[in-house]
UniProtKB/TrEMBL annotation, chain A:
It is found in: Cell membrane. GO terms for cellular component: plasma membrane. Keywords: Cell membrane, Membrane, Transmembrane, Transmembrane helix, Transport. InterPro entries: MetI-like, MetI-like_sf. Pfam families: BPD_transp_1 (PF00528). It comes from Phytoactinopolyspora halophila. This is Carbohydrate ABC transporter permease.
UniProtKB/TrEMBL annotation, chain B:
This is Sugar ABC transporter permease. InterPro entries: ABC_transporter_permease, MetI-like, MetI-like_sf. Keywords: Cell membrane, Membrane, Transmembrane, Transmembrane helix, Transport. The keyword Metal-binding does not apply. It is found in: Cell membrane. GO terms for cellular component: plasma membrane. It is a multi-pass membrane protein. Residues 94-311 form the ABC transmembrane type-1 domain. The chain crosses the membrane at residues 6-28, 40-60, 98-118, 130-150, 189-211, 232-257, 290-312. GO terms for biological process: transmembrane transport. Belongs to the binding-protein-dependent transport system permease family. It holds the Pfam family BPD_transp_1.
Length: 305, 321
């Protein structure tokens, strides 16, 4: 959990703390009792709901359905049965949907990043007519709500016979990610010192060589930031999934399936609780290990939502 | 499809794009130098093409279809837009959307800001922040399941215990348990609470970074003028992080307008909880009313624009200063 601590390194110059001596820093606590109470109340409100469901996911079905999770403390019973049933039981079979989510997410991260890298490099370091106009146009596309594109795009996929495969999901996620990806990567590429590029030019390197040997290694952190961002976005998405894959089809992801379970089995809390945590475990792990990059991406400014 | 097939497809798709990228780079590498235009063209065309087909064309098509009837065959002029301000169910949708965008961004930002200030430079800052930040990593569907459990209701009868913590608290306090999700307009605010729960972490992260960036001499000067506690917060902290506050508020506002997952998962838009983003889905993809769906998508787009313009203006002002 200490990964948050690394936040201040993500941008140079905005950490004003270095002027404070370590001892002064150590002395500063949550000084007033009012402040501590407020902080604790917020912290509890933000953790208790998750904790309650998490604890419930390990309680026997009978217990979950008949009394609240707080009763666990007087009658502690734990089981993994809910997870076994939700993953492999014939009613839910979430394990299939875990595979679907993986199969949807990985290309939906790799494709837009590759395309955006090329475009961002051209916008940052190549000269061509209408470059700035085109860049502003791509940037402006960030504000377009994806809802506006969904139905005609679905029609296109039906017309060309791609419906029912992973392709609509890959293409839709890639397209919707491009404006932010191009913008973000362009900004990082622009920050690379001109001297580096010029020196390489003098040595006879062309754009392809500069792109591969100078640019890519230097902006790896930015690429990682965007990948984490896009991974969480795609894995957690519901709208694109429901539009192009439905909730029970061969290619539907976990989120769509769980949203459907909430509708059809809204009182089967032993399935819902375990199912929710099956869907959460991977993004939370990715998030915790790569939080540094995620925060960097967040601070680099994005309006995607 | 079985698991192996799915994974093979996935690997093939990635290989296909890696190959296409490699091909572009190889071909461009052969072009004689100083032919920037040709090279740039090869670099940007894949992205531009995808945006044109996958975003720009469909968006224009939606704009066009919003003037047609439910099957997009007969031209109906502005009837779809008119319906939004005349039909009672659609007026409720607009009202709810207004509730969302007025309540969620401000509350999430205020909570994020207060929390960021409270835990700033304390011993357990990292841990405290992680607690609030965690909801950002999980899906809105997951968040909805978590909160549906909090709001869960069971009939108020002998021998039946509440399983939702909120209703249990009511019972402990001596009240009757409530069917929270059926109870309009309270249900809308309980759904908004879920989004606040998710977005406060984002607000906290950005604002915390801004607070740490306040120059130490400004803080010292405030101290010399006798500013402490709430006054320091009011006269030094808040004005210093104004640009960050605006970014956070506008970003969450835009996200709020587009949020669909929470309403869809919690109520499906029933019990007077629907909002524009959800109604778009219901009309277009459940009821097959394409004309009205398209008009709703356009309204969503139009609502985002003033927020973006405000944001850009404020950023420009900040730059000039």
């Amino acid at each position: 959990m200490s990964a948050v601590q690394s936040t201040p390194e993500t941008r140079e110059g905005w950490d004003g703390t270095e002027t404070v001596s370590p001892s002064a820093r150590a002395r500063k606590r949550l000084s007033s009792p009012g402040a501590s109470t407020a902080a604790i109340i917020i912290a509890v409100l933000w953790t208790l709901p998750t904790f309650g469901l998490f604890l419930s996911s390990f309680r026997p079905e009978e217990e979950i359905k008949n009394n609240g999770w707080w009763n666990w403390f007087t009658d502690p019973q734990l089981t993994l049965e809910n997870y076994r049933e939700v993953l492999f039981g014939s009613r839910t079979e979430l394990s299939t949907y875990v595979i679907n989510s993986v199969a949807i997410t990985v290309p939906s991260v790799v494709i837009p990043v590759s395309l955006a890298l090329l475009a961002a490099y051209a916008f940052a370091w190549m000269k061509f007519p209408f470059r700035d106009t085109l860049f502003v146009a791509v940037f402006a596309l960030q504000i377009v709500p994806i809802q506006i594109a969904l139905v005609p795009l679905l029609q296109i996929f039906v017309d060309v016979g791609l419906n029912g495969t992973f392709w609509p999901l890959w293409i839709a996620h890639s397209t919707f990610a491009l404006p932010l990806a191009v913008y973000l990567l362009h900004n990082f590429m622009r920050d690379i010192p001109v001297e580096l590029i010029e020196a390489a030019r003098v040595d006879g390197a062309g754009h392809v060589k500069i792109f591969g040997t100078i640019m890519l290694p230097l902006i790896m952190p930015a690429i990682a930031a965007f990948c984490v961002f896009q991974f969480l976005w795609v894995w957690n998405d519901l709208l694109v999934a429901l539009t192009f894959a439905g909730s029970t089809s061969d290619v539907a992801p976990l989120t769509a399936r769980i949203a459907e379970l909430v509708g059809t089995r809204g009182t089967e809390w032993h399935l819902l609780s375990a199912g929710a945590f099956v869907a959460m475990i991977i993004p939370v792990l990715v998030f915790l290990t790569l939080q540094r990059f995620f925060v960097r991406g967040l601070l680099a400014g994005s309006v995607k939502g | 499809m079985d698991t192996a097939e799915k994974l093979i497809q996935m690997v093939l798709a990635i290989a296909l794009f890696a190959g296409a990228m490699g091909l572009i780079l190889m071909l461009v590498g052969r072009v004689r130098r100083r032919a920037d235009i040709v090279q740039a063209f090869a670099f940007i065309v894949p992205a531009i093409l995808l945006l044109a087909i996958g975003l720009i064309y469909p968006a224009l098509r939606t704009a066009y279809q919003s003037f047609f009837d439910r099957t997009t065959e007969a031209f109906v002029g502005l009837a779809n837009y008119q319906a939004m301000f005349e039909r009672d169910d659609l007026l409720i949708v607009l009202r709810n959307t207004l509730f969302w965008v007025l309540v969620a961004p401000v509350t999430a930002t205020v909570i994020g800001l207060i929390y960021a200030v409270l835990v700033d430079r304390t011993r357990f800052e990292a841990f405290a922040k992680a607690l609030i930040f965690m909801p950002m990593a999980i899906s809105l569907v997951g968040a909805s399941v978590i909160w549906k459990f909090v709001y869960a209701h069971r009939p108020d009868q002998q021998g039946i215990e509440q399983i939702g913590v909120l209703n249990q608290i009511l019972v402990w306090l001596g009240f009757e348990p409530q069917q929270f999700m059926l109870n309009a307009p309270l249900n809308t605010f309980l759904l908004i609470a879920i989004l606040i729960w998710v977005q406060a972490g984002f607000a906290m992260t950005v604002l915390s970074a801004a607070i740490k960036a306040i120059p130490q001499d400004i803080v010292e000067a405030g101290r010399l003028d006798g500013l402490y506690g709430v006054k320091m917060f009011r006269y030094v902290t808040v004005p210093s992080i104004r640009p960050a506050l605006i970014v956070v508020l506008t970003t969450i506002s835009i996200a709020t307008l587009k949020v669909f997952d929470i309403v869809r998962t919690m109520t499906g838009g029933q019990f007077e909880t629907s909002i524009v983003a959800n109604e778009f889905y219901t009309q277009s993809l459940v009821r097959g009313n394409y004309g009205l769906g398209a008009a709703l998508a356009m309204v969503l787009f139009v609502m985002v624009i003033p927020i973006v313009i405000y944001n850009v203006r404020q950023m420009r002002k900040a730059d000039i200063r």
